[in-house]
């Protein structure tokens, strides 16, 4: 339950939500007259009753239920769906302008990330896999009920090589020597750099020591970085294997930023289990992913009204090259049968972060509404399970509505299995949002 520190959030609306959450009793909640999308099956469970006790779902039934002492909520025929999951989210990067990274400090980044986390939850995203940044304090305070936000499976600072995707140092920062202090953003854990097997091993262990659920690295060129063309392979096979070995010692896995064939194939050989992006790979590489049970964590990034813009023309050209591959990557993934997960990768733009649900709706370009919703719920939850014992939420399954699952629920005014655009405007269409058995939005009353 939320504690009195919720009142410290400055937004008046959020303060009201916190007050409502605090006032809830520990008695069960009985939802009646709801049509349930369970996260797995396309057919709705019509006119259902759902019981939440504590933070878990304790019954899903089409029979009339009488629950002693329960608070009864009439769903009015609305569609109940599991809380949404974004597996490529950046708590620290999503909601601060890029200029903040140049002129700000870690306190500003953390505060903006915490404020943005409340907004993320109110968009219906009750769980995120954070694939780069320093969200540990934000996660700790969310889990303690001190601030609002989604469940976070943190990767901690993403690790890259000198001249790689996470090398944002000024041009004059090299050459370096072993006596040099770390660049500011490396020293505060917003990102990390490692070169050579010993340093890779040390940095990976440091990230796990911080509390990471999985390790995030960059094995190939990136868009927003200026020293690495897209075709560049980053890290040698031995270095990649060192990352994977450290992850394995913690019974978790490595996710890697990758776009191109050679970089992806080398990463698969090393044992990487989640390819982040992958827009420019061939069918052969995708089949290699499928045959090695490697996930494709891809985002519906297009050069459209939500397209990213970069001051650097080199980065802008790379953005066009990457987004030119989006259609083919999604279509090929469906044909090949590789396991695909949904994420957004929104960076340095609080206004664009508000479009998180609209990014999910973009999946209708390649998937049916059912396929899109299943991906953003139960399928994404399966990817999160790769963290094994490092998964911080193990009281029940995520991404589904069934007995024993976490009570992360949304009541939608309409049927998103028929109209996926409903998720693009959660403010208008999500009438109730529950996370961990606590109601954070209730527009029914």
UniProtKB/TrEMBL annotation:
Q: A Pfam family matched by this chain, by name?
A: Amidohydro_1
Amidohydrolase-related domain residues: 79-437
Cross-referenced InterPro entries? Amidohydro-rel, Metal-dep_hydrolase_composite, Metal_Hydrolase, Metallo-dep_Hydrolase, OTAase-like
| Listed SUPFAM superfamilies | Composite domain of metallo-dependent hydrolases (SSF51338), Metallo-dependent hydrolases (SSF51556)
Recorded GO terms, molecular function?
A: hydrolase activity, acting on carbon-nitrogen (but not peptide) bonds
- Organism domain of life: Bacteria
Would you tell me the protein name for this molecule?
A: Amidohydrolase family protein
């Amino acid at each position: 339950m939320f504690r009195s520190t919720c009142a410290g959030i400055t937004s008046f609306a959020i303060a009201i939500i916190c007050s409502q959450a605090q006032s809830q009793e520990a008695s069960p909640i009985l939802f009646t007259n709801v049509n349930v999308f369970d996260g797995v099956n396309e057919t709705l469970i019509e006119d259902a009753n759902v019981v939440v006790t504590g933070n878990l779902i304790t019954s899903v039934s089409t029979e009339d239920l009488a629950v002693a002492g329960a608070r009864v909520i009439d769903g009015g025929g609305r569609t109940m769906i599991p809380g949404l999951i974004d597996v490529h989210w950046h708590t620290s990067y999503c909601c601060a302008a890029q200029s903040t990274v140049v002129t700000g400090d870690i306190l500003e980044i953390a505060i903006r990330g915490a404020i943005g986390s409340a907004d993320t939850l109110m968009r219906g995203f009750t769980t995120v896999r954070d694939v780069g940044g320093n969200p540990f304090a934000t996660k700790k305070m969310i889990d303690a009920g001190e601030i609002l936000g989604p469940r976070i499976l943190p990767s901690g600072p993403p690790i890259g090589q000198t001249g790689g995707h996470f090398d944002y140092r000024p041009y004059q920062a090299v050459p370096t020597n072993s006596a040099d202090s770390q660049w500011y953003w490396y020293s505060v854990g917003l990102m990390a750099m490692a070169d050579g097997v010993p340093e890779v091993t040390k940095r990976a262990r440091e990230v796990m020591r911080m509390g990471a659920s999985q390790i995030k690295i960059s094995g190939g060129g990136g868009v927003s970085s200026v020293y690495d063309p897209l075709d560049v392979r980053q890290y040698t096979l031995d270095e990649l294997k060192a990352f994977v070995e450290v992850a394995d010692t913690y019974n978790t896995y490595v996710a890697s930023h990758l776009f191109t064939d050679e970089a992806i194939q080398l990463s698969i050989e090393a044992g990487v289990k989640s390819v982040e992006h992958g827009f420019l790979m061939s069918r052969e590489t995708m089949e290699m992913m499928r045959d090695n049970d490697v996930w494709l964590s891809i985002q519906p990034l297009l050069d459209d009204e939500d397209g990213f813009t970069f001051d650097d023309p080199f980065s802008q050209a790379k953005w066009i090259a990457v987004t030119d591959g989006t259609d083919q990557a999604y279509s090929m993934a469906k044909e090949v049968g590789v396991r695909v997960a949904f994420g957004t990768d929104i960076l340095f733009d609080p206004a664009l972060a508000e479009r998180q649900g609209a990014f999910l709706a973009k999946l209708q370009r390649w998937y049916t509404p059912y396929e899109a919703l299943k991906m953003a719920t139960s399928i994404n939850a399966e990817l999160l399970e790769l963290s094994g014992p490092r998964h911080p939420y193990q009281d029940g399954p995520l991404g589904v509505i069934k007995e024993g699952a976490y009570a992360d629920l949304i009541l939608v005014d309409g049927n998103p299995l028929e109209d996926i655009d409903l998720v693009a405007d959660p403010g208008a269409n999500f009438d109730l949002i529950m996370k961990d058995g606590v109601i954070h939005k209730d527009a029914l009353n």
